[in-house]
Amino acid sequence: MKKENLILWGLVVIFAIMMSVPFIIPHTGIISLFGIIPLLCMERIADLSGKKRIWPYHYTAFVLWNAITTFWVCNATIGGGIFAILANSLQMSLVFGLFRLSKKKFSGSLPYIFLAMAWIAWERFYFDAEISWPWLVLGNSFARTTWAIQWYEMTGALGGSLWIWACNLGLFGLLVSLSDGSFFAWNRKARIVSAAGYLAILIAPMIISGSIGKQYRNSMESPEQLEVLIIQPNIDPYNKFEAMTQDQQNAILEEKMEQALKDRKGDSTAAPLLVLSPETFTRDIICGDYPRSRTWRRFTSFLKDYPNVSMLFGASSYEYIMSDERPTATARHINDGLWVESHNSALMTDGTTRTEIFHKNKLVVGVEHTPYPAVFCRIDDMLGGVMGRCVGQGDITLLNVRPIEGQAIPIGCAICYESVYGEYYTDYVRKGARAMAIITNDAWWGDTPGYRQHLSYASIRAIETRRAIARCANTGISAIISPSGEILQPTPWWEPAVIKAHVPLREDITFYVSHGDITGRICTFLFMLLLLALVVRFVTKK
């Protein structure tokens, strides 16, 4: 192998390692501010040497990055994990390939600006795509370096993506000017301005973050608070219903509730309290006919002795439809004239049997959701129904803690994967959520970085919305996340646990919640302008 090829492959590996570290090792987000430079150097060296085929290098770089950070998906589904790694890498590589194409018509720094805008536009599009896996949004690399991103309350995670690109491209530009000698050809003032400009881009967001963060040092203190009880039952999801019955699982939760609430039994003057249990805790909920569920009957009966206690639990729920023809593309046929649609749901109930339900909207492709159902559901039927057919409810609705006296307390409940989607998540707050809950089941991935990454993304959501989060995970990590993104009272992995805490109830609205993803919209607009200019240059002679 030529020495030049060894250098190129070495830069590929360095890029993959540098960009993976922030997602795996806590407090290392700063590395991402320099992590893309090896990839840019690889492309420049290959370009200057006249190498024609660079695609294998940058595609391999993205595959390695995706594999190192998200290999754990294969623990749940080998085929799905491999597909996610290869397909996500392909999209990244296509964006980089478009940048390479732009260099044929754009000169100077313009292709690199085009690359940054194209990348962020793709990240924003990915949040709403039918097949969506936005786990490695660049701004997420700061999920465990929250001291540096308190300003996400204004920009959201894509503001972090823009910061990462600005720092990488700024330093890369300085390195290029040093290597070709142009830096020293500039006058003294130009050199000072260039270096100072880069340092400002690098350091100013951290200073701003520190200033904003001071306002939230006591963010868990508030005149109004809600007491929460988080129960981590620690049930293996792979043999959940084979190893024990639903009644046995219900008994685990009831026993822990009884121990934690013994001082409140019969006390109608006690302050409101919310009990949380994890995602898909039960599978016996029939929409609109809750008394048919043994789980619902058991919990509502138990709660009659505990006034002002509400319970939020996850469920696989079902809606039965009588129809001579298929009522929807996602419906499964049971028998003559009977169809069923399934949901991944969160239910809120109490001792009065009042019940509210919310169906998860952001569904995991393949496992829960069949993309483009009009086409793929028919193919799935021919394969015997191997893909998930869960249906979301479309709009976000809130669940309410309803005390005997006083106003209801609106709570937003993000179910598992929904906590990855920043702009979607803000809808809970826009609709009036005063605190947030996240219920999840991360045990499918085993003891890998996956569940820790998922937990860390909740810190970003807390900063963006300034809403405290009560997070309940089946096997861990359950925790309280403060409005400043601090993770409090984290539970051990794969151990039964109970958290009792108070979360602040807030009504303030952040700039990001109020205005949405302005960073993403602006970058998408600029990308479209640059893309149009590129097309014009290709179709014109000059």
What is this structure's SSE topology?
Blueprint: H1 3-24, H2 37-48, H3 55-70, H4 73-76, H5 78-102, H6 110-128, H7 152-155, H8 157-179, H9 182-185, H10 188-213, E1 225-232, H11 240-243, H12 246-260, E2 273-276, E3 282-286, H13 294-303, E4 309-322, E5 332-335, E6 338-350, E7 355-359, H14 373-382, E8 399-401, E9 409-415, H15 422-430, E10 435-440, H16 449-465, E11 469-473, E12 479-481, E13 487-488, E14 497-504, H17 511-515, H18 518-539
Parallel strand pairs: 1-2, 2-4, 3-4, 9-10, 10-11
Antiparallel strand pairs: 1-14, 4-6, 5-6, 6-7, 8-9, 11-12, 12-13
Essential attributes:
six-stranded mixed β-sheet; Nitrilase/N-carbamoyl-D-aminoacid amidohydrolase; 14 strands; 542 residues; globular
Beta-strand proportion? 15-25%
Label the CATH architecture of the largest domain. Answer: 4-Layer Sandwich
Question: By CATH's scheme, which homologous superfamily of the largest domain applies?
Answer: Carbon-nitrogen hydrolase
Q: Total number of helical segments?
A: 18
Q: In this structure, how is the largest beta sheet organized? A: 8 strands, mixed
Low-confidence stretches: none
N-to-C CA distance? 40 Å
- CATH domain class name of the largest domain: Alpha Beta
Sum up the overall morphology in one term. globular
Mean pLDDT: 93
Number of domains: 2
Residues in helix, %: 40-55%
What is Rg? 25 Å
What CATH calls the topology of the largest domain is: Nitrilase/N-carbamoyl-D-aminoacid amidohydrolase
Q: Using DSSP, what is the number of strands?
A: 14
Which class best fits the helix and strand makeup? Answer: alpha/beta
